[in-house]
Each structure stands twice: as structure tokens, then as C-alpha cells.
Design a protein that fits this description.
With 127 residues, the protein is an alpha+beta fold. The protein has helices spanning 3-43, 47-61, 69-74, 79-86; strands spanning 91-95, 98-105, 110-117, 120-126. Strands 1-2-3-4 form a four-stranded antiparallel β-sheet. A hairpin with a 2-residue loop joins β3 (110-117) and β4 (120-126).
Length: 127
């Protein structure tokens, strides 16, 4: 390997490091903006929505609530509320253009199936 080839390889490596550092900085800035947007969204929740979030988090923590709790609390809630409260779904499907999300709830691997219309929960099933 010649000195010129080594210099070119070092330049490429330096450019890659710089690009990776810039990408990492952009990613961190985006994460901060997303977190700030989430915090702002939570501030706009009314008292009932805050209580609903606490109830659902308790259901998840204790691995179970009455089956009727989920539809009652989730129907009509925003996509943000669902993902902020329940976390990431365990799986997703797209059936006929309709996004369906599955969340693990309960002690015996019960699943919560949600679908949205215009970013609002319109269908809730518990299996």
C-alpha cells in the first residue's frame, strides 16, 4: 500500500466519521423534538385523559384489568395517547388498507387489537 493510497483511505474514513457524527447529532436533535412534542401533547390532556393513562399503565404493570376496561378507555383516544400509554405494539398488520396494531396485555398473553380511523381509535378487541 502506497502512502497516497493510505492518505486517500484516511480521508474517506475521516469523511465517514464526520458524516456519522452529523447523522448522530441530527438523530439526537430529532429525539429531543419528539420528546418535547410528546410532553406538549400530554400537557393538553384533560383530567379524564390523565386518569385513563394512569389506569392503563396500572393495567399493564399488574398484567391485567377487566376486559371491558380497554374498549371503554381506548375508544376515541388519539394514536399518540395509545402509543404513549401502551408503548410499542408487539405486531402490526395492514388488512385492506386498515392498520391494525396488537399489544400484549394481561397475564395469559392476552392481546389487545386496535385500529384507527383518522388517528383516532375506532375499534378495540381483546383476545
Amino acid at each position: 500500500v502506497t502512502a497516497t493510497e493510505e492518505k486517500k483511505a484516511d480521508e474517506v474514513t475521516d469523511k465517514q466519521r464526520a458524516a456519522l457524527a452529523a447523522l448522530k447529532a441530527q438523530s439526537e436533535a430529532l429525539d429531543q423534538r419528539i420528546a418535547a412534542a410528546g410532553a406538549e401533547q400530554r400537557k393538553s390532556w384533560d383530567a379524564q385523559t390523565v386518569e385513563d393513562a394512569k389506569l392503563l399503565r396500572g393495567c399493564l404493570e399488574h398484567r391485567g384489568c377487566d376486559v371491558g376496561t380497554y374498549p371503554r378507555v381506548l375508544r376515541g383516544k388519539s394514536r399518540f395517547f395509545v402509543f404513549d400509554t401502551l408503548g410499542d405494539p408487539v405486531s402490526e398488520q395492514n388488512i385492506g388498507g386498515r392498520e391494525i396494531y396488537y399489544f400484549a396485555v394481561g397475564r395469559k398473553s392476552a392481546k389487545l387489537q386496535l385500529s384507527f380511523e383518522m388517528s383516532i381509535v375506532d375499534s378495540v378487541n381483546v383476545y
